[in-house]
Specification:
This protein is of the alpha/beta class. The protein is built from twelve helices and ten strands.
Length: about 325
């Protein structure tokens, strides 16, 4: 398991040395209907998140934000009481709930939430995670250093050793990561200036269960926007609670890799050779017979789910992308 402080220092991306300060607070305009227009909007896609959303909204209610702000919960067709729980925070938090049921997937919810948001700086987190103290302030105070940015994702705080052990590389915490040839942020912790979002267009809703965050980061960098990294903006990330849920998650991650490659291969996204794929599959199959401990078996199964996802996705997209 990676050490949090060391990994932060080594993580890829832009980091400004020294103490960040908010700088002069911009002039705040009046919002339609009275009141101050929010300068920061936090958008949360949510679907059947009643078990966790109180933790996330409680953490947001404890944020110290130096400017007017808002929270927009975009409900993606919840069948539980997610909407009621979110709305109940309105007396402690500037929160609104908007309907986002037209299509399943986090990107559809992000698009609907973003359309409803009024801020110039857009922050994104998930309903089942927990933003840490100073999260909003960290993005706000560093906003002049980047056009869009990711933060630090802490995979330790909310997860026991058993859940962390299922992570394929044994490291649940991370800053920015790389797929192919470009960096990306995790979809549970990132920020975008409104002007950048509007220039790039909507989040691609064809990515339903994986690759949604990678696609947006790739498009931004290829268009010349600066991708930054703000390690002080930390989110405690909740891993999938059961092996079955983890298998489903990593299958989807693998399934959308060929779709990602098909979209960006003309821009230079590389792929591994068939020889590399054959070696990867051979090692995976050989490793199955040597797995003894339950935790090792779980990690092997999650890796296998990712590979099966890539195979299935390659067939679906008529694009060969079999290993990483």
């Amino acid at each position: 398991m990676a050490d949090g402080g060391t990994e932060r220092d080594r993580a890829l991306g832009v980091r400004t040395n020294g103490q960040r300060t908010a700088g002069p607070v911009p002039r705040v305009e009046a919002a339609p209907g009275g009141g101050e227009r929010p300068l920061v909007s936090v958008v949360i896609p949510a679907r059947d998140a009643a078990r966790w959303i109180d933790d996330q909204l409680g953490a947001l209610a404890r944020q110290e934000v130096p400017v007017p702000w808002e929270v927009v919960v975009a409900d993606n067709g919840s069948s539980d009481d997610t909407v009621a729980r979110a709305a109940a925070w309105a007396d402690r938090l500037p929160v609104r709930v908007v309907e986002a049921t037209g299509r399943a997937g986090p990107n559809h919810a992000r698009n609907r939430g973003t359309a409803a948001a009024r801020g110039d700086l857009l922050l994104y987190c998930d309903a089942d995670d927990v933003v840490q103290p100073g999260w909003v302030r960290a993005f706000w105070c560093s906003r002049h250093d980047w056009d869009l940015a990711g933060g630090w994702v802490d995979g330790e705080a909310l997860n026991d050793e058993r859940a962390r052990a299922r992570h394929p590389d044994g490291r649940a915490s991370r800053g920015l990561a790389t797929v192919g040839w470009l960096r990306f942020f995790m979809g549970c912790n990132f920020a975008i200036h409104r002007r950048v979002h509007d220039a790039l267009g909507r989040f691609d809703e064809s990515f339903v269960g994986g690759g949604d965050d990678i696609d947006f980061a790739f498009r931004a960098q290829l268009a010349g926007w600066r991708l930054g990294y703000v390690p002080e903006a930390t989110v405690a990330y909740r891993l999938r609670g059961s092996l079955r849920d983890a298998l489903r998650q990593y299958y989807r991650y693998g399934y959308y890799r060929p779709h990602l490659y098909r979209k960006f291969r003309a821009a230079g996204m590389p792929r591994r050779s068939l020889r590399h794929a054959a070696r990867t599959y051979g090692l995976l199959m050989a490793g199955a017979w040597r797995v003894v401990h339950a935790q090792d078996r779980a990690r092997w199964a999650v890796q296998a789910a990712f590979v099966v996802g890539m195979l299935t996705g390659s067939l679906h997209d008529h694009t060969i992308y079999l290993s990483e």
